[in-house]
Amino acid sequence: MPDRIVSWFRQNLPLCEPEFACYDRFMSMACTCKFLIRDAAIAFALWMAFSHTAFPTGAEPDRDVQVDPAPCVAAAAANEDDKIISACSALIDSEKTAKADRLKALLARAGAYDRKDMIDGAIADYSAALMLDATLADALNARGELWRRKGDRPRALADFGAAIKLNPDHPAAKGNHRSLALELERAGALMAVDGKPGFNCASAKRTVEKAICANPDLANLDRELNAANTKVVDSASRDSPRAGRALQREQDAFLARRNASFGRPDYDLRKAMRERLDHLLAIERN
Length: 286
Description:
Layout: H1 3-12, E1 17-20, E2 33-36, H2 40-54, H3 70-78, H4 81-93, H5 99-115, H6 119-132, H7 137-150, H8 153-166, H9 171-193, H10 207-214, H11 216-239, H12 241-261, H13 269-285
Antiparallel strand pairs: 1-2
Helix pairs in contact: 3-4, 4-5, 5-6, 6-7, 7-8, 7-9, 8-9, 10-11, 11-12, 11-13
């Protein structure tokens, strides 16, 4: 019996006269002790203490077995979204997964969610990945594209900007940031004229013009129609002044029919304006 154990008994059990016997093999090279003691409760407490601390058992503690990342990696390499989600989820959910493996699994599953149009899940995974590594410009750009699809343009713009800050030469982030900034600029310009037609409502005299001014949807439609007409007439006039004048006469004829027809039971003003706009847009595309 090791001297330190005998010493412990002598110091802590003054009422006990232990008799020790050690065996070569017991509980992986452990020693077992036999001793006489009058108090069974003390004996039980002593046994618990020694069974966990005093007696060297020789057995190695259980080692944490990390989840095998191979199935997730294989699914990602095969680009099989359903398998990626299944295999990588097991890796992500395990507390024993190494940080590097968890990061790769999150990025792989985010891509799978994205391709399956599961936008919220993809955003959550990219966000978790960025918590592990905030320097991932690709993840920021990808999350920005998801925010844009979701309709959250401010967050999208912030992610694109952050990606460019990390990598000033990131082509996708630069393109996304530029196009979204222009989109927001146009949206701001449209807000300034929202509900306003292509003519001045303060000088409107005709009943049809007053009806358009009183209806924001018709007012916006009229503004689009007027802008489209101006564009196609100007474009045609650069090639042929005669062609430009012909297009403007078409527009004047449409306005004359509109003014004369408004108020009749069989006349649908919105339909007539929509058809005229579609015609002008078709000319513009050609």
